[in-house]
Amino acid sequence: MGSRKEKTAIKRKEERKTTYLAKLNNCPTSPRKMRLVADMVRGQEVTQALNILKFSPKEASGRVEKLLMSAIANWRTKNEGVRLEDGNLYIKSIYVDSARQLKRIRPAPQGRAHRIRKRSNHVTLIVDAMVTTETA
Q1: What is the CATH number of the domain that holds 58?
Q2: Is residue 105 part of a domain?
């Protein structure tokens, strides 16, 4: 491995030590509906995002809330003894990708059939510790 590639690989490894990831695969909700919920919490602090998701009337918000709790649990495994409020965690990135589609057929008039696509998605949520720089 060249020195430039090695340096970037080491840098990437160091960045991964402070970020915590949670994934939700094959969630049976359309990606468009899930992206509405993901946009609500992107860039928010973790405690504020939990409140937004808890009181949101959307069905997808329950799944994203559970995913966020999983990311927080991943953070707690590495940072034992640190309170969540002291961690300064925020949602660094959340993105929704489309997953498999179940193709079904609905009968239509005059012997025809219409195709129904039941969509699903993958959600990836990355939580990071907010760095605060203090000037003395």
Answers
A1: 3.90.470.10
A2: yes
Per residue in 110-131, pLDDT (tens digit) is 999 999 999 999 999 999 888 7
C-alpha span between 35 and 84 (Å, rounded): 26
- Is there a domain that residue 110 lies in? yes
What pLDDT digit, counting tens, does each position of 43-94 carry?
Answer: 999 999 999 999 999 999 999 999 999 999 999 988 887 888 788 899 999 9
Q: Are 60 and 33 in contact (CB under 8 A)?
A: yes
CA distance 79 to 95: 25
Domain-embedded: residue 1 = no
- Torsion angle, alpha carbons of 31, 33, 37, 40, to 10: 100
Sign of CA dihedral 107, 108, 113, 117: negative
pTM: 0.84
Tokens standing for 16? Answer: 């991964």
* Size (the chain), residues: 136
- Does residue 75 sit within a domain? yes
97 strand-pairing partners:
122
Domains held by the chain: number: 1
